[in-house]
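G., the chain you wanted modeled:
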Amino acid sequence: MKNIVQNLTLPRELGNRPALTRLVERVLASWPEHLSYICERFGNCEREHLDFCEYISQNVWSIISEDPDRYAENYRWTCDRMLEEEYHFHMTGTYRYKTFAEVQNGIDLEVDYMTRYTDGLLLSQIFWVNQTQALHTYVREILPQVRPGATVLEVGPGHGLFLALAAERPGSSVVGWDVSASSLANTSWALERMGVDSPRLVHQNLHDAGTDEQFDFVVASELLEHVDAPETALRRLRDLTRPGGKLFINIPVNSPAPDHINLWRSPDEIWAFIRDGGLRILTTDVFPMTGYTVEQAGKNQSTLSCALVCEPV
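Predicted structure as tokens:
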């Protein structure tokens, strides 16, 4: 790895950020052609953003440290899968699949595929600027409100970063739901690696969940583009939120991926969808993918992450 990386000039902005630098070096060791993207991604970023990247990189490294090369290689593999879906989207104007059953029939959802895919998505929290900015919005807008005794539910916790950050709040109680038992096992392992003790992880289909238990904060980050009947899912998220509580929702616009089935074409479509679900929007943020402004991404039908803080009406 050293010989490859020594021949590359890393962005100077990475200086004094060892965890971020370590992740970048691992990716470039298996994918040196990614350097120009890395320079665009991290070059000329504000210090606050880079410091946040370093903070999240420390958590990511705690997950991947036993086999970082595997994660770096699977990040490249995931990027290739995304490019295939992007090509299909721009050729057809729509996502490849329309239901979760079609996803199951169309791609191999066995352990090997999903491991590679989720490995890559974990690193995307650092390397895809819109992902990092959405996570940063959650940290700025939601976590300061999490007081001792507060409960935080995330539906579809995946890599566990959102739950791990919430667990850092003194006296908080974090809960994760997922329809997949194997995904929950991976979340449990990642949370343990990040030092989260005894999180409550529940094998639960959102559509089948009752509302006997409500939560102070409900998190659904990059969930609703994956599920059948997203309108019903959104109302269930609303009903799981205690009166006076908050929801953090992150939904991508024009974001083709192997398992995305629900397409929104503009932020305005997202806002209307949220309001129709019985939620009051308190804050909105829109983040374009690396290399684009919001205006350019909208014109080119490229990915925009739409992050919202909401409350039940």
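The chain has a mean pLDDT of 94.

Shout if anything looks off.
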